[in-house]
């Protein structure tokens, strides 16, 4: 399936008077222990806050850790809550999914529903679901220590690539994730399982390029799509592995995709994923090619990192469309507040899709 992308001219302007200003709250938590996708540190959330403030809106940042703090947000009745994390974990270990909580309380929120966000949190669920939709994904299986006794028990031949099934920011991924024999396989499965205490995702190794695709649905219903190549530094084994250290140290190179055929493959796959997963507002899709240039879905990042200057999401729009960080945040906010009419009641969802097929 091929698409034509509609790229509108973006005009950045402040609300004309105070009556146009919206009440917006950014919701985050102490999320270092979540090992989940999200906007990032408090510094990243403050960058989002300053961008929204420059639009003329009334905006505050809430660091929420309890149900009482979330209920206080509901009482203030903001026009939009911008969700910088998917959920919070309270002191009594209760997990509260923010999209579900605010939907139940009639508060307009940015991003996708809980059901869709589960595809972000669970890589295996996303791959299984999209495989049934005929989306290209790398062949895979899951493993726990001792489950497989020898090479012949493995459903896929070497080389293989191992990573956590639920971690973000490339956590748990390093040069030892690439395995070429059973001893390496057993060792990496054990180390990841001891750290994450969940079955490990084992994929066929794809020896091509890494790409990431940033997408925002605008308030007019158009889908902005920007793709870039992510080129990690070479590891000791000579491979370019986008792992935890490279992501943390920001040593990867971001490049424009010069091959138009490859760009079309990457974008078309990402758009199909956007549609099939039921993504709302915005998201980032990671894709990898094999040595033959065939593209495969790797994972969905539906609350992508928003650190100013290093966010793959904002950098993709900057490199392909020339949009600044502030303009990217404005697009996200404008789409969210477009659901709020003058009487501050939510506008029903519209399933209109652009790009134009």
The biggest sheet amounts to: 5 strands, antiparallel
The CATH architecture of the largest domain is 2-Layer Sandwich
Strand order of the largest sheet: 12-11-10-13-14
CATH class of the largest domain: Alpha Beta
CATH topology of the largest domain: D-amino Acid Aminotransferase, Chain A, domain 1
Instruction: Output the structural class.
Output: alpha+beta
CATH homologous superfamily name of the largest domain? Answer: ATP-grasp fold, B domain
Q: What is the CA-based Rg, rounded?
A: 21 Å
How far is the first residue's CA from the last residue's CA? 8 Å
Question: Which key features would you list for this structure?
Answer:
357 residues; alpha+beta; Rossmann fold; Dna Ligase, domain 1; D-amino Acid Aminotransferase, Chain A, domain 1; five-stranded antiparallel β-sheet; 10 helices; globular; disordered N terminus
Would you give an account of this structure?
It is a single chain. The protein has 357 residues and is an alpha+beta fold. The chain has 3 domains: 18-111, Rossmann fold (3-Layer(aba) Sandwich); 139-204, Dna Ligase, domain 1; 207-337, D-amino Acid Aminotransferase, Chain A, domain 1 (2-Layer Sandwich). Helix content is 31%, strand content 20%. The protein contains 10 helices and 14 strands. The strands form 4 sheets. A 5-stranded antiparallel sheet has the order 12-11-10-13-14. A 4-stranded antiparallel sheet has the order 6-9-7-8, with helices on one face. Strands 2-1-3 form a 3-stranded parallel sheet, with helices on both faces. Helix 1 (42-54) crosses helix 10 (325-337). The chain starts with 22 loop residues before the first strand and ends in a 20-residue tail after the last helix. Mean pLDDT is 87; it is low at 1-18 and 350-357.
